[in-house]
Amino acid sequence: MAKINIRIEGLPYQVDEGLTILEAARQCGYEIPSLCNYNHGECNRASCRVCLVEVKGARGLVASCVYPVHEGMEVKIASPIASQARRTSVELLLSNHSMQCQQCAKNEKCELLHVARLTGARENMYLGEKTPVSIDRINPAITRDTSKCILCGRCVARCANAHGNGILGFENRGFNTIVGPAENRNFNDSPCIMCGQCVSVCPVGALMEKSEIDKVDEAFRQGKYVVVQTAPAVRAALGEEFGMKIGTPVTGKMVAALRRLGFHKVFDTNFGADLTIMEEAHELIDRLNHPDSVLPMITSCSPGWVNYAEYYYSDLIPHLSSCKSPHEMEGAILKHYYAQKVGVKPEDMFVVSIMPCTAKKFEKERPQNMVDGLKDVDAVLTTRELGKMIRRAGINFIKLNDEEFDEDIVGQYTGAGVIFGVTGGVMEAALRTAYFAITGEEYGMINFTQVRGFDGIKDASLNINGTVLNIAVAHGMKNAKVLLDDIRAGKSKYHFIEIMGCPGGCINGGGQPYVRECFLPNEDIDIVDTYKQKRANALYSEDERKRIRQSHNNPQLKALYLDFLGNPNSHKAHHLLHTSYEAKVPFND
Ligand code: FES
């Protein structure tokens, strides 16, 4: 990239051409406050005005988040005029804010508080009437409290990108403007897929996951046998909650922390992922072998995607695999198999899932997932909630020594289970097992790299004993729509499709740690471009290190089928591990 010369506070710098002043200043070691701007232009409404700077020759102050640098530009960040203007902008935002920081669940990671500290903004500078407030706490996954909203628009832009149709927007006009679903409905009455992407970009506590920490505390108080399982993507990001570099794998520390929190057993959802692969690969083979079957088959482990299918593509529901997602499968096996093995009544077992995902909170409530009157999973905590629990318990996460997951009966996992956490990973894991199931031989090229990376849609063909299998992978509903519309139009050439609700897959789930420069001072400034790859690398490297990398070679899984389930897709497997879906109307009146 070509370099240009600019001056900041009179000092000369060379910066990349095409950057905004804000980005160029970061390259030179300055932090200009910013709120509404996000992710290299994903949202750049320039509405908050907390990033104002002086530029020689410009008429008035400029919003540095959108104003591009040019050769010879002279910028003043610290001048009294610019500093005062930024402080006033923050004070105006505070004047319409609920200011309940003490009780706010976001107070540790609130960007408004951060910029208030940076600018020296004072409370109560502009007292007066406040915008009427809407609060929605009835959804099982996401809460909305407009008394905290600063109208930055980041959630609106992210929802449009991730959801495709975009259910969040600006409602009302002028002083009464709020952000929410159409007609200010609550999330339950709108086609929100609960992916939580809006939560992951909200700078304040206006959009939050519905916390279930109290539920877990209560289970301990009641003397339940509390078992925890952790999804693969959590280990790739939990360290960020404690200031560690993005992409630092923290599997061993996470296990050690969970033991110190008092969980009776600490399992890895990857066992459930291996089980999912066994069931899903055999379901695919079964469909391929029966000419009247519905193809392409589409993965069903992303609850955001399943919600989307039920709202917008209910005619394609027969294409969805009937497999439950890995943590639901793991929960079902824990309650209906493991509990008996360890002498615990299933109703006395309380299963907690640590997930990178907010939609999993909803998924566990689906009546179709109940088995013999019991939920598979009783509580879902996001990676961020686990970070809070660890801090609350006074555990020094960084100093913990690595510990191993419990491995009794249902704990061992393979590399195939680990890569579930990144877009393309389910497909790659399924192909390793499907190839073996069809040919009786291991697929030679264990890394199926055609489905790796972050292109919106990836596709490939695999020749299995002369039969060509066409596969595709999409992440984010905007991308998935392209493949789904082709199926609807009868134009799809694919046999098997993986769809993940969140862009990048679970590593970028709506429950993962906030990625924002102000909370990650030790990161390179280009984190917005590279954090997904860094988290993905943490999973791929764990896959590489595993001695067993194909789900069908998991010795405990083989034993589970021999001892309990019979064969993949058996009657018992269907009873415990498979589910169903229902068409939903996008807007309920
Ligand atoms: Fe520049 Fe909001 S960050 S106007």
General description of the model:
The protein folds into three domains: 3-95, Roll (Ubiquitin-like (UB roll)), CATH 3.10.20; 131-209, 2-Layer Sandwich (Alpha-Beta Plaits); 214-577, Fe-only Hydrogenase (Larger Subunit), Chain L, domain 3 (3-Layer(aba) Sandwich). 34% of the residues lie in helices and 14% in strands. It is built from 19 helices and 18 strands. It has a five-stranded mixed beta sheet with strand order 2-1-5-3-4, with helices on both faces. It has a four-stranded parallel beta sheet with strand order 12-11-14-15, sandwiched between helices. The protein has a four-stranded mixed beta sheet with strand order 13-18-17-16, sandwiched between helices. The protein binds FE2/S2 (inorganic) cluster (FES).
Features:
14% strand, Ubiquitin-like (UB roll), 4-stranded parallel β-sheet, Alpha-Beta Plaits, globular, alpha/beta, binds FE2/S2 (inorganic) cluster, 18 strands, 5-stranded mixed β-sheet, Fe-only Hydrogenase (Larger Subunit), Chain L, domain 3, 589 residues
Topology of helices and strands:
Layout: E1 3-8, E2 11-16, H1 21-27, E3 52-55, E4 62-63, E5 73-76, H2 80-95, H3 111-119, E6 135-136, E7 142-145, H4 154-163, E8 168-171, E9 178-181, H5 197-201, E10 207-209, H6 213-221, E11 225-230, H7 232-235, H8 251-260, E12 265-268, H9 269-289, E13 297-298, H10 303-312, H11 326-341, E14 349-355, H12 359-363, E15 379-382, H13 383-392, H14 415-418, H15 425-439, E16 457-464, E17 467-475, H16 477-488, E18 496-500, H17 527-545, H18 555-565, H19 571-577
Bound molecules: FE2/S2 (inorganic) cluster.
